[in-house]
Structure formats: structure tokens, C-alpha cells
């Protein structure tokens, strides 16, 4: 018995060794490209480190300077404004489009393809398209608004309209979220709808009591991912304003300002402090969303 146990132990050790051997490229990559940069940025946030010089330890000086930085607070305000408006709108739009695409109508595949294509367009190309569409002088949006007697706003050129313009551009490319919602809709058992129809429930009642509750796990997932993505918004505003955040810093988003400090001003310690503050903001908002899920997220078989 002891001999067989020893053999089994040796075999298990060999299996574990082989497993670690095959997983070692991934483990080394994780340590080199994730763990080490994370720990290094935590250390650099307490230094005056730049890309050209190692810097010196200054304690919490970078964090105290951030609290006095007006552009830092403006970037937080812009980012939270974008997040709290874009994420709910993207959820409403995504669910509505998924429900429409889930209808059994002729040309269903064509409609699904057309609505998914914008999400495949590179963000730089998206900026070029929307700069033309939202041009206050000859853009198509203001042209059609004029046709119905509405004087179009200056859009990106206005401090008041710049962030709504950016939200409009972002909503144009939510095709991937729509696909996830569509998959969630198709996972709802047809038996539930049949039983509801037998009980006399109309379309609105079926959607309210069956579709939306059973879709909440998918909504929860997209809310988490959408919030994290919105807080890290960078490419669209950076490209639109050439990294300047104009007009009047109304398009200066948090990650843009972090990038500018780190790679334009070479204040890498300052940028590292910003990165950790962003990390804390992401963790807090994600924790709040997770804390509320018990009240509104419904999983099949757990009720």
C-alpha cells in the first residue's frame, strides 16, 4: 500500500511539474508584463521618476500635488460625466437594438450585420467620419437639422456640446455589446413566453416580467465592462483634440491627462500616482455595482 502511495505521489508531482513547465511561458509573461509594471508603478508614484532620470523618493508629494491640480480635477469631472451618461445610454440602446434584432423578420441577418459593422471600424476612422458629420458648417447632421427648422449646435467646437458629441460617437460603436445582449435573449427559454401567453400576458408584460429579469446577468456584465472602459476612455478624445482636450479642457479625460504627464512632460512619477488613483476609482465603482446586484440581478435556477 505504501509503495503504491509513493508511486501515486511521484506521478502527481510529475504531472504538476509538467503542468508548470507548459504554463511557464504564460507565468513568465504575467510576471514580466503585468506584475512587475504594477509593482514598479506603485514605487514610482512615490518618486520624481522620469523616463530619462531615476528620480528620488518624495513620499506622498505627487498625490498632494494632484489634489491642488485644477486640470486633474477637471479630467475627473469630464470622465465621470462621460461614464455616468454613456454607460446607462449604451445599456438602453444595446438592449433595445438586441430586442429588435431578435425579431423573426425577413433580412434579419442583414440588419444584424449592418448594426455590428460600426464596432469593427477603427477608432481613428470613426473620428474622421464624425468630424465630417458634426461639422457645424457643412456637416450632414446640422444640414438635416436645418431642413426641419432647427439651428444645429457647434458640437465639438463648443464646451457645452463637446462631451455630448463624444457620447454620440461612442454610442455608434456598441455593436459588440448588442451581440452579447442578443446571445442573452436567445438563452431565455421559449417555454416561459408560451406559459405567459397562455396566462394572457401581452408583449409589454412578457418583456417586463420575463425578458428583462432574465437578461439582468448580461446587463450586469456589460455594466461592469462598460464602466471600466468608459473610465479609461482615451483614443476618441485624444484624436479629436490632438491631445489638447480643447475647448477649455472640456475634452481632457483622465487617461489623456495621465498620458500627457507621463510621455509629454516626462513626469512619470506623477503619472504613476494618477494611475493608482484611477485604479482605486475603478475598484470602488465596481464594488458598488457588485454590492447592488443582489437587488436587481436574477439568475435562472437561483430564485
Automatic annotation (TrEMBL):
Source organism, top-level taxon: Bacteria
Topology in membrane: Multi-pass membrane protein
Record has Transmembrane helix as a keyword: yes
Transmembrane segments: 15-36, 80-101, 113-133, 165-183, 214-236, 273-292
Keyword Transport: yes
GO biological process: transmembrane transport
Keywords: Cell membrane, Membrane, Transmembrane, Transmembrane helix, Transport
Cross-referenced InterPro entries: ABC_transporter_permease, MetI-like, MetI-like_sf
Pfam families in UniProt: BPD_transp_1 (PF00528)
Location in the cell: Cell membrane
GO cellular component: plasma membrane
Domain ABC transmembrane type-1: 76-289
Family, similarity comment: Belongs to the binding-protein-dependent transport system permease family.
Protein name: Sugar ABC transporter permease
UniProt source species: Paenibacillus lycopersici
